Amino acid sequence: MVATVPTVLPTVEATRYVTPLREGGSLPGLVEADDDGTYVVKFRGAGQGPAALAAEIVTGELARRLGLRVPDLVLVELDPEIGRREPDEEVQDLLTASAGLNLGVDFLPGSLGYDGMAWRPAAEEAARVLWLDGFVGNVDRSWRNPNLLVWHRRMWLIDHGATLLFQHGWPERSAWAARVYDHSEHALAGFAAGLPAADAELGALVDGSMLGEVLELVPDSWLAQPSGGGPPRPAYRDYLLARLAARAWLAEAAA
Known about the structure:
This protein has nine helices and eight strands. By secondary structure, the chain is α+β, with helices and mostly antiparallel strands. It has a five-stranded mixed beta barrel with strand order 1-2-3-5-4. A three-stranded antiparallel beta sheet has the order 6-7-8, with no helix packed on it. A hairpin with a 4-residue loop joins strand 2 (about 30-35) and strand 3. Helix 1 (about 50-65) packs across helix 7 (about 210-215) and helix 4 (about 125-135) packs across helix 6. The N and C termini lie far apart (about 40 Å).
C-alpha cells in the first residue's frame, strides 16, 4: 500500500498480465507488479486515451484529500514484451499500444460492487460523494454503473475517467463553471443527506494549492493541451476553481 496522501505516485513495473476485466468499455486488466502488488490497470492505449487517466488521478486524489476512500494509485511501467506474449489479439493490441506508463489501481480482493441493498453508507458520506461528483462533473455514477465497491463494510470510489469533461473540448470557462449536474440518476442521491454541510466542509478545503498538488501527480503527456495554448496544469486548475466558485452544480443537486 502506498502513502495515504501521496505527493508523488509510486512507479512499479508490470511483471505479469493476469486477465482482462471486461465490465467496462476500456478493457482494463488485472496485472501483477514487481512490488508484489496486484493492480487493476487502466491502459494509455485504450480508446478513451490518456486524458481519461489524467481524470482518474485528479479526481481520485482529490477525493482522497477530502476524506473519501479511493484505492491507492500507482504508475505502471509496461514492457511491450508482455503484450507480445498475450494470445488474445484484442488484448495484445491494447498492451502493445500501451507500452510505457499506465495507471494502476490497487486491487481490493473480495470487494463487491455496490448495489444499495445489502449495505449502505452513512447519509453524510453519500452527500460528500454527491458533492465531489457534481464538482468534477462525474457522468458515470448511476445505478447502471455505480463505480463503487464495498470492502470490509466500507465504500470505495473507483473509475473516474468520465470526469473533467472540459478537457475534451475546452469550452468557455464560464460555460463549464455554470454547467448543471444531473444528479437524478446518481446511485447515492436517494438517501444522501446534509449536502449544505458537505459543501461547507469540502468547499473550504478545495483551493488552488490542493488542485495544484493533485495535478502535479499527473504525467505531463496525459494532460490535454488547452485549446487556447499555454501550459495545461494552470488551465485545469482555473477551470476547476471557476466551477467551485460558481456553485451552479451544487444548487441543482440540492434542489
